[in-house]
């Protein structure tokens, strides 16, 4: 039996489901999984064209320190997401993080079944910042005690972006179905 990895870092581009209805931005997502540590995520957005910027997007990022709350329906606005699954299991978890720090973690027993708030979840640490022409959201998600496994999970990274006209665009590592579906395990990274 081979030894499982102690640390994995991956940077991936996120692609929009519909190129015609998405803002002119480049998006990347990064994760760092370390055995027995928090899962580190980072989402970065930058302009696709020299004259464009991220000003046309809504981030709801203004909030007092330490006031993040556990909330449902974060995906109805700009939201950063991660999906984790144990290899070989039907069940998986969905993490939703708003730029202002609001969050939730759901446990599913199989494809879109269950969706119950994970009772053992602790609030993540979220930092959202604007850079010269883009923005970045970094997140640290405590995995213990709800993820007690030593092996690296299958993982999917995705986001929903809301623009000033209230239109949503859906971004993921891949879109294996004919509609946006972040729960589709065919879009998860496997090791």
Task: Provide a descriptive summary of the structure in words.
With 191 residues, the protein is mainly beta. The protein has one domain (7-61, 70-175): Immunoglobulin-like. 0% of the residues lie in helices and 42% in strands. It is built from no helices and twelve strands. The protein has strands spanning 7-16, 25-34, 39-47, 57-58, 79-85, 92-97, 103-108, 116-117, 125-130, 135-141, 154-163, 168-172. Strands 1, 2, 3, 4, 5, 6, 7, 8, 9, 10, 11 and 12 form a twelve-stranded antiparallel beta sheet that branches. A hairpin with an 8-residue loop joins strand 1 and strand 2 (25-34). The protein starts with 6 loop residues before the first strand and ends in a 19-residue tail after the last strand. The mean pLDDT is 90.
């Amino acid at each position: 039996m081979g030894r499982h990895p102690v640390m994995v870092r991956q940077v991936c581009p996120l692609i929009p489901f519909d190129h015609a209805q998405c803002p002119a931005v480049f998006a990347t997502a990064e994760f760092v999984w370390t055995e027995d540590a928090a899962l580190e995520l980072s989402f970065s957005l930058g302009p696709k064209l020299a004259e464009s910027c991220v000003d046309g997007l809504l981030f709801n990022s203004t909030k007092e320190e330490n006031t993040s709350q556990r909330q449902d329906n974060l995906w109805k606005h700009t939201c950063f997401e991660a999906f984790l699954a144990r290899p070989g299991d039907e069940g998986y978890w969905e993490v939703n993080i708003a730029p202002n720090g609001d969050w939730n973690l759901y446990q599913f027993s199989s494809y879109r079944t269950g969706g119950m708030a994970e009772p053992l979840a602790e609030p993540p640490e979220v930092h959202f910042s604007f850079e010269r022409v883009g923005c970045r959201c970094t997140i640290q998600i405590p995995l213990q005690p709800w993820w007690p496994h030593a092996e690296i999970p299958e993982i999917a990274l995705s986001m929903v972006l809301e623009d000033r006209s209230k239109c949503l665009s859906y971004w993921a590592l891949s879109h294996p179905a004919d509609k946006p579906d972040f729960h589709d395990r065919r879009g998860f990274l496997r090791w």
